[in-house]
Amino acid sequence: MQWWCSAQGLPWTWEWRPYPGVWLFVLLLASSYLVARRQAAARRGQQPPWQRVVGWVGVAFVWLALDWPLGALGAGYLSSVHSTQFLLLTFIAPPLLLLGLGPATQRPEPAKGSRVAMVLGALLLFNVVVIASHMPRVVDALMPTQLGAFAIDAAWLGSALLFWHPVLLQAPPIHPLARMGYIFWGTLAHTGIGVWLLLARLPVYRLYELAPPIAGIDPMSDQQFAGGIMELVGMIIIFGAVSLVALGWMQRENELEREGREKLARERALPGA
User: Fold this and answer.
1) What SS3 state is found at 245?
2) CB–CB of 4/65 below 8 Å?
3) Which of 3, 12, 84, 135 has the fewest CB atoms in 10 Å of its CB?
4) What is the DSSP letter of 259?
5) What is the pTM of this model?
6) What are the φ/ψ torsions at residue 214 (nearest 5 degrees)?
7) Residue 10 belongs to a domain
């Protein structure tokens, strides 16, 4: 019995396969998220319904990315599915998990130097993980083993949670303009990888080039599709996140402007004003 999805070199079939290690990992993630959400709710009171749901959607996306069939296909058959797993575990599930915990709580403000170091450290770690985990030698060496495949999946999810934390849960919050720049510049590595996969003239991963073939899909077409997924879908998510931050910033500025006008009107209405 396999505990984690890894490249086995066996012909692909649509017969369901159990992966108990994935189930245990998702159960641990769900339990940890439940504890964190209850602690957050205890500090801030009742959460809105959408916030109680969105984090569980993130847990579901993690399960979808790791378990059969995506987990098995991405581990040893299709580079395009591997790219889909990457986006699910780095650009989709982590923000949803963090959004489910709610806005940043009011904690003592750390020193400015410490804040900058933590933010830059999260950005650097995420990009190192993204680049290293897509290097051909790393993929070809780790994906055939269950421990190696688990290491890549866990590194994607863990580094992405750290990366998105300054955007969604940093206390006190980072200025919206800084958040937009952080998202844009912090996710450029995946764009370069997508372009590299699209323009490569030969298969870059021996793992997927030599994988048991799936009818109607050749390694080069699969690799180009993987690059397109990384490039197009990734950029849609990035620009969507930047746009949401900008929209929230504009709404907040409008609220402050309206509150200022209302305050001025009340002051002028006072006797003797």
Assistant:
1) helix
2) no
3) 135
4) H
5) 0.90
6) -110, 130
7) no
Give the span between the Cα atoms of 50 and 57, in whole angstroms: 10
| Residue-number span of the structural domain to which 215 is assigned | 20-104+135-269
**Residue 141 counted as domain residue:** yes
**What are the tens digits of pLDDT across the range 64-74?**
999 999 999 99
114: in domain: no
Q: How far apart are CA 109 and CA 24, in angstroms?
A: 37
Q: DSSP letters along 179-192, please?
A: HHHHHHHHTHHHHH
Dihedral sign (CA 96, 102, 103, 108): negative
13 CB contacts (<8 Å, ≥6 apart)?
none
Domains contained in the chain, number: 1
Decide if pLDDT at 245 tops 90: no
The tokens describing 11, both together, are 């012909």
Angle at 154 between CA 122 and CA 34, to 5 degrees: 85
Tell me, yes or no, whether 8 lies in a domain.
no
Length of the chain measured in residues:
273
Sign of CA dihedral 14, 231, 143, 209: positive
